[in-house]
């Protein structure tokens, strides 16, 4: 291993135990297809698609060439009162991929920005309709919606919230659906838990009144909290309650989208059309930051028609919205997904992946395994008085053995690139089984 020609101290790393990491760094220096290369030269099998995002595998030439060509043609183009072809083309492609009349896309640079954008659009929509008093935003316990003030507020993961005081006002949360007594070791959508959707009507609407509620936001499959698939009938019930009371339903598909569940989006797989869909990550195969919010026709029309002629309809946007390099990466990525039929491939692979993951059921410390599509969560028994310690030990030992996994507390999350072969799944779960058998 070559000596590092850089210092580790100046970079304040996100979502990282910085002191622990810098005492024993895990540095990746290159990537190709299913593997990273660590600084010591070892190949590391990517069991997480980077961070749920490299769905087509690493450094795919088609995407790399598209980014290079875009950089040589136009490095940046303003998108306020101007335009360039890229984002118009991406928006048209997304229109063909999304169900129902989710026909209009607003571009951002990340999932966090997509969520904050969707929440602002929800408020703007109700105001445009003369119902500006609809200000309450409803999230869900254990939900993750990024790190903006809006996303953190509607999110429900306590460590992400506790340092930042009260955040936004007018926010409430549905209960999460995870229950080891009733739905442990479920395969796909659990049978138990649909009734938890009724909390939206019986508690939240009863408390705040529907006339004051703007939107409900949920991840169809909660990802960052440790892979929580929706109980059968749960999301259908949430959709029906929102329809009944004129409340917008937002699906956060930053993780779920672009093939992770064997379809373009979870809403397609589940047959439910939300009012908005947030996306990012897989839209460019993570090569260039990009996100988007897709909205239904009635939302777009309400905001457009409420503004005076020749005026800006929505006072919101980002300097890098629809960036030329991001748009080029997105178009190449969507082409690659289609030509290699990666969404269909994921659907065909999910049973093999499910069986492989559930083969770890009898490994030491495992208290639950759950999966949906090409996502799985393996929950470990917590060490007394040391929450997260066993999960972190699993992360480190897995890396030492040549596989990359993610952990959230004491839950191991798996989400390999959609190009994974059965041999990759076997290596991933086989090595992970060795890791689990060696944990304290």
Characterization of the model:
It is a single chain. The protein is α/β, with parallel strands linked by helices and 440 residues long. It folds into 2 domains: 137 residues, Alpha-Beta Complex (Aspartate Aminotransferase, domain 1); 275 residues, Aspartate Aminotransferase, domain 2. The protein contains 16 helices and 15 strands. Strand 14 and strand 15 form a beta hairpin. The model has no long low-confidence stretch (mean pLDDT 97).
User: What is the straight-line distance between the termini?
Assistant: 30 Å
Q: What best-fitting shape do the alpha-carbon axes yield?
A: globular
What is the level-2 CATH architecture name of the largest domain? 3-Layer(aba) Sandwich
- Please give the number of β-strands: 15
Rg measurement, Å:
22 Å
Look at the structure and give the mean pLDDT.
97
Q: What percent of the residues sit in helical stretches (DSSP H or I)?
A: 25-40%
Low-pLDDT stretches: none
Q: Report the CATH C-level class of the largest domain.
A: Alpha Beta
Helix and strand content put the structural class at: alpha/beta
Q: Strand share of the residues?
A: 15-25%
**Overall structural domain count:** 2
Total DSSP helices: 16
CATH superfamily of the largest domain: Type I PLP-dependent aspartate aminotransferase-like (Major domain)
Major sheet: 7 strands, mixed
Q: Per CATH, what is the topology of the largest domain?
A: Aspartate Aminotransferase, domain 2
Strand order of the largest sheet: 4-10-9-8-7-5-6
